[in-house]
Amino acid sequence: MLETRGLTVRFGGHVAVNDVSCSFAPGTLTAIVGPNGAGKTTYFNLISGQLKATAGTVLLDGQLLSGQSASARTRAGLGRAFQLTNLFPNLTVLENVRLAVQATREGAHRRGLNLWSIWSDHRALTERADSILAEVALKAKEHATVASLPHGDQRKLEVALLMALEPKVFMFDEPTAGMNAAEAPVILDLIRALKKDGTKTILLVEHKMDVVRELADRIIVLHNGQLVADGEPSEVIASPIVQEAYLGVAKEAA
To answer: Does residue 32 lie in a domain region?
Structure first.
C-alpha cells in the first residue's frame, strides 16, 4: 500500500501541493487528473523523491520513505517512468536495459566468481533484457545508441527500464505525450498488461480522458494543489467541481 499523509510543498508563498492525503492499493490503477498547474506532476515528484516535501509523509507498505533519496525510494519499490536523465545516451538500447536488470539481480556479476559463471550470469541478464525490449517493440533497435533514437522510442525505452526494475508501484506521467498514433498503443498495451497482473499499484497522470475512462479504476482530481475529488471514474468525471475545474465547464452550465 502506497500512502501520502498531509503531503505539502511550498515555493515561497505559493503552495503547489496542499495537504494531500491518499492511499493507493495494489491491483488498482488510479488516474490523477486536473488542469494545467494543478500540482499533478509536483505530487508525483514528492512521492518519488525528486522534490523535498515541506510537510507530510510518504509510506510504502508501512515503510517511511520521507527523507529518503529518489534512488533509495526506487530500491524500496517505487518506479517512476519518463525521466530522460535516467538513460545513458552513449550506450546501446540493450546495454541500458541490461544495466537496469543487473541492478535488481543477485548473481556472479556481484560476487566476482569464475569466468564461466560470470558469462552464464551475463547471458541470463541479456536474455531478460531482450525479453523486455520485445515487449516494448524495441528489439529491432537493441544495438542502436540511445542518442540516435527518436523521441517516441526513447519514451518506450524509459518504460523498458522501469519494467526491468520490477517495482511495486508504477508511476506514469503522461506516458503517450510526444508519441504518434502508431507508437502510443504499445505503451497503453503495456499498462493494460501491468493492470491485469493484479499485484502492482499503478498511478497515471493523463490528460486524454478516453484513456482515463478505459484504464482507471479510480480518479483523483487535483486543483490548485488540493485534492478536490476522489472516486469511481464516471462519478468523478460527472461531478460539478470536475466539470468546472478540469473540463472547463462554467458553474452555471454544470
So the answer is: yes
Q: Mean per-residue pLDDT for 102-108?
A: 64
- Cβ-proximal residues to 183 (8 Å cutoff; 6+ apart), any chain: 152, 153, 155, 156, 176
Q: Does residue 228 sit in the same domain as residue 161?
A: no
Q: The domain that contains 60 carries what CATH number?
A: 3.40.50.300
Q: Same domain, yes or no, for 131 and 209?
A: no
Residue 58, pLDDT above cutoff 50: yes
Residue 246: per-residue pLDDT = 59
Listed in sequence order, the residues at least 6 apart from 37 whose beta carbon sits closer than 8 Å to its beta carbon are none
Domain boundary among 126, 143, 166: 166
Q: What is the pLDDT of residue 197?
A: 85
pLDDT at position 251 over 90:
no
- What whole-number distance in Å separates Cα of residue 56 and Cα of residue 75? 21
253: pLDDT strictly greater than 50: no
Residue 84 pLDDT exceeds 60:
no
The reply to whether 47 and 172 lie within a common domain is: yes
| Claim: this prediction has a pTM higher than 0.85 | no
Round to whole Å and give the CA distance between 185 and 77. 26
Provide the number of structural domains found in the chain.
Answer: 2
Rounded to an integer, what distance in angstroms lies between the CA atom of residue 237 and that of residue 166? 32
Range of the domain at 128: 85-166
Contacts of 208 (CB under 8 A, 6+ apart): 176
